[in-house]
Amino acid sequence: MPDNELLYGLIGLGTAAVVLVLGYNALQERKHRRAAERAFRSEHRDVLLEGDATPETEQAPPVTQRREPAASRVPPAAPIGRAAEPELPADAQAVDCVIRIEAPAGLIGGQIVTAAGGPLAQLNRPIRWYGFGEDTFRWQTLEPQDPASYTRVTVAMQVADRRGPISAHELEIFVSAIQRVCDQFMAVPRIAERDEILALAQNVDQFCAAVDIQIALSVVAGEQAFPGTKLRGLAQAAGLVLERDGCFHARDDQGETLFVLANRDPALFSNDALREMVSTGVTLSLDVPRVAAGGQVFDRMVTFARQLAAALHGTVVDDNRRPLSDASIGLIRNQVTQFQEQMQRQGIPAGSELAQRLFV
Question: What pTM was estimated for this model as a whole?
Answer without folding.
Answer: 0.74
